[in-house]
Specification:
With 425 residues, this protein is mostly helical. The longest helix is centred in the middle third of the chain and has 29 residues. It is globular, with a radius of gyration of 21 Å.
């Protein structure tokens, strides 16, 4: 078939994905350091930490569709995405570096101000950086491109984990090094990714598979009205399943390092080895996800990833001590999480057009952010309660995976049309 003759331009996708290092760095700063800084450093409760994370994600959730829509309509000389990527990247690097001054002076207000500015900065860059990949990729290859994108993003997170392993709770070094990484990845994008030139070179191919580039100010509501009833249901079910999965994962990731320190008496730097296990298993599974989806269909691959995550959470809930079962459970969580992270966005983009990729990307990211709002906040309340405490961590994450599994069967669109793979109905 014609889609089989298409070949992914791996070098190009790697170049435009380098900026994802910055997003991966920030995500891991949020996951692995903020819980320690606020709870152990400033002496705040898990509930307070959950409120701060939820508030930052709620703020960026409200702003994401705005930035995504603006990037769809931007007509700058460098391209529609570049101004947002560069602004967000430089602002995040500066704010993260500045936060060190307030952290060293134990100034909570100043530190949180810098933290919120970082969150907004990433919110500016994220929709544009994520939308740039489908902008420059023929639709049938979106899942393959998403694999590379996710790997680069994961490498940013893995870099922060390595910093934690080496420097433990020396957050001055960790944050300054992370800020330097964000700055360098943004500078690389500035000099190595001429967006409009890259689009011009691939114009015939992109118009053939993605449709003509649209300059109309199309909104999500207009695009949604153009979908059939089953496409609308699929669109909403993909978002719902994604939301519940992200809620489960971020509820777990917001406290599992503190869990290891408090329940397993691990040193903070040693607890980073748990994150390494998640990343290693995740990187391996990411490489296989696109191939599995081509053979089995994206929906079946999603269901498989949900089932693997659920088994991982259930296994972790059965163990009270750190050992083989605990490691196995974290490996399964990492495998399922990484597989899931590759597929929902390409499935949504499959139902969009070139004029709404930024908006669709923002809506997808909003469903992720909503999970990041509810998961850590709800988990913080449970962990601080006398009735539940830290033993609620893994069972709660498992409960959130159930509606994700129940949502997936209603998805009927967003699959690549291949001979062996699952087709849209």
């Amino acid at each position: 078939m014609e889609t089989e003759k298409l070949k992914l331009n791996t070098g190009l996708i790697v170049r435009i994905s380098v900026v994802q290092l910055a997003i991966g760095v920030w995500d891991e700063i949020l996951n692995s350091t903020l819980q320690n800084v606020l709870v152990m450093g400033f002496g705040k409760t898990e509930t307070f930490k959950g409120i701060i994370i939820a508030a930052s994600q709620l703020l960026t959730m409200l702003l994401l569709p705005v930035w995504g829509g603006l990037s769809d309509r931007c007509r700058a000389k460098r391209g529609r995405r570049s101004p947002f990527i560069l602004t967000g990247g430089f602002l995040c690097a500066a704010s993260l570096a500045l936060s060190v001054l307030f952290l060293e002076k134990s100034n909570l207000f100043g530190f949180l101000t810098c933290f919120f500015v970082c969150a907004v900065a990433v919110c500016i860059a994220n929709p544009a950086a994520t939308a740039l990949v489908p902008d420059l990729t023929p639709k049938p290859l979106n899942a393959n491109a998403s694999v590379i994108n996710r790997i680069v993003c994961s490498l940013g997170g893995a870099w922060v984990v390595l910093l934690i392993l080496f420097f433990d709770t020396d957050f001055t070094v960790i944050y300054l090094t992370a800020a330097g990484t964000i700055l360098n990845s943004t500078l690389f994008y500035l000099f190595a990714v001429p967006e409009n030139k890259l689009l011009a070179r691939q114009k015939p191919l992109l118009e053939k598979y993605n449709g003509p580039k649209s300059d109309a100010q199309t909104s999500l509501s207009v695009m949604f009205r153009q979908l059939t009833a089953t496409e609308k249901r699929s669109f909403l079910m993909i978002l719902a399943a994604n939301f519940f999965t992200k809620t489960a994962y971020y509820a777990f990731s917001s406290a599992y390092l503190n869990y290891a320190v408090i329940k397993w008496n691990m040193q903070y730097s040693h607890s980073g080895l748990l994150t390494v296990a998640i990343y290693i298993s995740g990187l391996v599974s990411i490489l296989l996800t696109a191939k599995i989806a081509e053979k089995c269909g994206r929906k079946r691959t999603l269901l498989l990833s949900y089932a693997i995550m659920l088994i991982g959470f259930l296994l972790a809930a059965t163990t009270k001590n750190f050992g083989f079962v605990a490691v196995l459970s974290l490996l399964l969580i990492g495998i399922g999480w990484s597989m899931e992270s590759v597929l929902p966005l390409p499935m949504l983009v499959e139902m969009s057009n070139s004029g709404t990729v930024g908006i669709v990307t923002s809506v997808y990211t909003d469903s992720c952010k909503l999970g990041r709002v509810i998961g850590p906040f709800f988990m913080g309340l449970l962990l601080d309660s006398k009735r539940f405490g830290y033993r609620a961590l893994y069972p709660t994450a498992a409960v959130f995976m159930v509606p994700a599994l129940l949502s997936a069967p209603f998805i009927r669109h967003g699959n690549v049309q291949t001979t062996e793979g699952e087709k849209d109905e």
